[in-house]
Design goal:
By secondary structure, this protein is mostly helical. About 50% of the residues lie in helices and about 5% in strands. Strand 4 and strand 5 form a beta hairpin.
Length: about 290
């Protein structure tokens, strides 16, 4: 069916210019510059002596540097070789997952990006301790390790920042189709604790924890999704301290006019024109 570009309605909520993290960074340097910044972010994220704020800021920087590196694929191998040895495993996992996604995309006919931004609300996620307790409870009930649940939560809705219905009609922080939820789970898929326990239940019913690759593919039948979630999960497994930094990751949305950062406070009840939004919010161009 044809889509119609919609101009922002008079009720469009456009947040003020943020005082928080940027939507992008300018890292005009060689592989050494990327490696140094990623290594520094990793060191801060895993340092329990650092403040929570510092570790979250490092997580945001880590995300932005990785995003910048995705535009410089020619530097990938040199950056990985230049990383501090302690940082390489987690960074390499996500770089390899991204390379896999890029190769898959390149092998397929190009798909047009939407002209509109989604009808979502971007909200503050629940606190780290609350979410870790929910993952632990779900693990105790199902045997699905907490780090798989955290990785899905991160990939699906950036730890619950995204509130709204996906293009596939999935809902809630763990993105369940209502039909799937009805046959696997109890409670409310839009309630964080229920959704996390539901995700663990569904993964257990789908072959986890013995075969998490199969369980993840059942959760979302997309090889790229499985690769990215596995990369995050294995890093959380090996370095649980990384969770705090990743809990701070921002929301980005790919549109025909470019990638747009959707900040905390963005809230729309209907899709809005992406070009008009960026014209009013140039700080969200990513």
């Amino acid at each position: 069916a044809e889509t119609t570009t919609m101009a922002p309605s008079p009720t469009t909520t456009i947040p003020p210019a943020p005082t928080g993290p940027p939507a992008r960074i300018a890292l005009d340097g060689d592989a050494e510059a990327f490696a140094a910044r990623l290594s520094a972010a990793h060191a801060t994220m895993v340092d329990a002596s650092e403040s929570i704020d510092a570790r979250e800021r490092a997580g945001v920087d880590h995300q932005l540097v990785l995003r910048a590196l995705s535009d410089r694929v020619d530097l990938d191998e040199a950056v990985l070789d230049g990383l501090d040895p302690s940082a390489r495993p987690s960074v390499e996992r996500i770089v390899r997952a991204r390379q896999f996604l890029q190769a898959r995309t390149a092998s397929r006919p190009p798909q047009p990006l939407p002209d509109e931004l989604p009808a979502w609300t971007i909200a503050e996620p629940e606190p780290v301790d609350t979410l870790l307790a929910d993952y632990a409870e779900a693990e105790g009930l199902t045997g699905i390790p907490w780090y798989w649940l955290a990785a899905i939560h991160l990939q699906e809705t950036r730890m619950g920042r995204i509130e709204g219905v996906s293009s596939a009609d999935a809902v809630g922080p763990m993105q369940f189709l209502p039909t799937t939820w009805a046959v696997c789970c109890t409670g409310d898929p839009t309630v964080t604790r229920d959704a996390i326990i539901g995700a663990a239940t569904y993964l257990m019913q789908s072959g986890g924890p013995d075969d998490m690759a199969a369980a993840l593919f059942q959760y979302n039948p997309n090889d790229g999704y499985v690769a990215v979630v596995t990369a995050y999960a294995e890093s959380f497994r090996d370095e649980p301290e990384l969770y705090i930094g990743h809990h701070a990751f921002q929301v980005f949305f790919g549109a025909s006019v470019g990638t747009v950062r959707l900040p905390i406070g963005y809230s729309e009840t209907a899709p809005i024109d992406a070009a008009a939004y960026l014209a009013a919010n140039p700080h969200d161009a990513a």
